[in-house]
Amino acid sequence: MVSRSKGKSAVGKAAYISAEKIKNERDGVVHDYSRKKDMVHKEILLPDNAPKKFLDRKALWNAAENSEKRINSQTARDIEAVLPRELDLEARIDLVRKFCNQCFVLKGMCADYAIHDKGDGNPHVHILLTTRNADKNGFTTKNRDWNDRGLLLEWRERWADWCNHKLYYVSDERIDHRSYKARGIEKIPQIHIGAAVQSIEKKGFCTDKGSRNRRIKKQNLETEISELTKMREEKIAERRNNINEFIGETVGCDYSECRIFTGEKESLFKVHELLKEQGVKSILVNNHLYVNPNDEKTVADLISRMFPKPTEKEKQAEHIPAGNSASDKKRRSR
Questions:
Q1: What CA–CA distances, in Å, run from 176 to 79, 100, 153, 180, 189?
Q2: Which of 183, 234, 261, 325 has a C-alpha 20 to 30 A away from that of 198?
Q3: pTM above 0.90?
Q4: What topology does CATH give the domain 252-320?
Q5: Are 76 and 64 in contact (CB under 8 A)?
Q6: 131-154 per-position pLDDT tens digit
Q7: Structural domain boundaries of the chain?
């Protein structure tokens, strides 16, 4: 809310979002934001019962200020929302206009909105709303029903609906209006730092709010890494279980009962091919040959025939050093 108790005014806020120079008739302060370069579109939307003179920004917000008499009055409601980067300016304007008409203007509020975009990937809209009912003569009574917190949740949901409606035609991205907690996401929401703090941070100075957001961002990143690591481990385990199930189904038994033969891949492949010819179920995965326990002896016999183990005499011959054979010894003794 724009509140006098915080040193704010509706005129000052209107000048800021619209990048205009407007004088506050109540206190004589001139608010000049005409040098701002990031405002790309602005528009005032009025309910049918509001006077047409309120289409003038200066007239609208000075009337709002003058209708409030207390030093702590809330003179306007201020809403800021991020716009989808995937949308072009025309789509963004149509999105904001339809949202404002549905949620605010039809309920009797005057809505003044401005779209800001510096080209840095952060397009957003500022919406300034009146707090009093209006008739052809101007503002009348304060409408307390607009302060209902349930309306805020409704507006957030409608905003997500309109954004997703527009995104449907250009992107697979979608917006969810619910909080992290409501969605079961273990992330800490960052705090809103505002334009003043952003300006200080851009000059290279640290602020309490900026530092807090950096800590939150770091903690959220650590949480995300932990969740991704856990997800990766679960996917690896799932893949392993799927492979084991496939192996068991192929050889016709539970994976835990499979008999495994290891060796050189080329040799195992030859055994696997011969087993297929004999109608024996087997599967070769990496350097492991899996078979049904009922076929274990058949496979072992096949391997022993194809790749017989060397005899003791052959083993000894393999270990005789070069130049030390019996004939060599006989020649050296002559």
A1: 18, 19, 12, 10, 14
A2: 183
A3: no
A4: Alpha-Beta Plaits (3.30.70)
A5: yes
A6: 999 999 999 999 999 999 999 999
A7: 2-177, 252-320
